[in-house]
Amino acid sequence: MTHSRKARNMGSGESSQPTASSERHPELKLKKDKKCSPLAFRSMSLRWAVRVDQWEPSIDQWNQALSILDREERERISRFHFFDDAKRSLLGRLLIRRLLHHQLNIPQKDISLKRTKKGKPFLANRTACPDERLRNTDFNVTHHGNWVALSAESMFTVGCDVITIQTPGTGSVESFFYHMKSNFSKEEWAYISSSDCGERGKLTRFMRLWTLKESYVKATGTGLSVEPNRVCFQLGPDSDADRKCYISTSNPVSKPERKLLRDFLKRGNNIAALSGGGGGEGGPLYFF
């Protein structure tokens, strides 16, 4: 798969422990310099990704990881019927706590997480963060297949989504597209169904657009109240990171929703990620 010039290959390492990769603003590296002015640390932009299949915890390690969470978090994880689902959820919660403890310098005992009405986790006691400029840090976690990813921004709301490029279910790509076409605008579908990119290319383009739509919904917290074909993305060539976002004129939205969308699109704070592997292979991860 070709990817954007701004993409970062988040390939896995050799260790049997989970490995995390991050992308930060350069100014954060100045934090250890005692002569540096505090004004240098106004913002934070962070991306982490962990390979799920590289973590095979023992019972003691699993219980130790669970002990870091609060009771509500542990109960949510215990409801999963399959271990891999529970592991993805646990890794997501650990990434959030790592963010709050190591990046926002909040002691583990002071971390208090709650959820919005739409289910998005947030830091309940923001004053526990010693740096006032980081207290409004927003974060979002997503997982699919062999990847768990976290995005965080201190200056604006963020949403992220990750998906493995493979045909969902047991049907054909043609059948899958038939059932999903209504979620896209005419322009988006023309981009997806271009005859010169082959079946794999069409599926990749579909996933690129779908992850962007999902990341928007997660960032704004609008949930299923916004139909996917209302929020449209116009992408350039697959090798180009440049993209434009717009409101579909054939699917009008309310004034409050329109303002929310415009504010969101001005910032470009949607983070999508694609895994190049299929069939459970994992593959490298690309952010765009």
TrEMBL record:
Ranges of residues in domain 4'-phosphopantetheinyl transferase N-terminal: 54-154
InterPro entries: 4-PPantetheinyl_Trfase_dom (IPR008278), 4-PPantetheinyl_Trfase_dom_sf (IPR037143), AASDHPPT_N (IPR055066), P-Pant_transferase_sf (IPR050559)
EC code(s) of this entry: 2.7.8.7
Keywords linked to the UniProt accession: Transferase
Gene Ontology MF, one: holo-[acyl-carrier-protein] synthase activity
GO cellular component: cytosol
Region (Disordered): 1-31
GO BP term, pick one: lysine biosynthetic process via aminoadipic acid
A Pfam family recorded for this sequence: AASDHPPT_N
Name recorded for this polypeptide: holo-[acyl-carrier-protein] synthase
